[in-house]
Write a structure and sequence with these properties.
alpha/beta; Rossmann fold; N-(1-d-carboxylethyl)-l-norvaline Dehydrogenase, domain 2; six-stranded parallel sheet; 9 strands; globular
Length: about 290
Amino acid sequence: MTDQRVGFCGLGTMGAAMAANLRRSGFSLTVWNRTPGRAADLVAAGASEAATPGAAAAASDVVVVCVSDTPDVEAVLFGPDGVTVGAAAGTLIIDCSTISPSATRDYAARLATGGVAMIDAPVSGGSEGAVKATLSIMVGGDADDVERARPILSAMGTSVTHMGPIGSGQATKAVNQVILCGAYLGVAEGLVLAMRAGLDPERVVAALSGGAAQSWVLANRSGRMIADEYPLGFKLALHLKDVHIALGMAEDLDLALPVTALAARFEEQLMAEGHGDEDVSSLARAIRSGIEG
């Protein structure tokens, strides 16, 4: 189904690839990005470029938002030139950003006063998944709205799971980021131990990849940790933002997350040292250098 006109706001590392997959799937696409110059390839592929989020919404039945943080989503939706300026009643917003579940519920309620529906659909799978359209997408919202969005979501990912009411997708993404804290730290500790013990780390990865230690992080980020080079896949700064969301949820639930808290302390130190724009696998720097948690 490609008869829905889609707007896409946010053409960063993830968003540009996701929008490209929508265009390849045949959707009529209007795109906007805060920083000019990101839309050239999409326009060459047949998309239109809008000057503002409101203009993108005016040309669309469904608007996908993929930006960095909670204030960015609020600005795209409700700013002076935001989506609400151009969105007609009946428009559906799909927010693929990773933001606070409580803010998501608030934004959905505000949009509903104008007859605009919203679902939250944060994604996991890294830049590779965005390019290959193999993202895992966790969705919160009304069941009918989710079904309306499903053809669009399925063009961007291979796993689309409706988790419950609005905000449930964001809560699930927080769980995802908590689990990744342990995965990144575990792989980093294991590989640094292997190297200090004189083992060939690439052979270690090969040996472990068929067993219980296998994980997405081991398969996709071990090479970066071994080389001690961390080209961007998903910014450490953004992961830390997500971790703070998860820790805030845990505090509200009177729950301690010691591994997540440790990862946050490491990431805060790495941020202070200027590594915030590196891939989150640069957590291995903390293990290599013996940063104290």
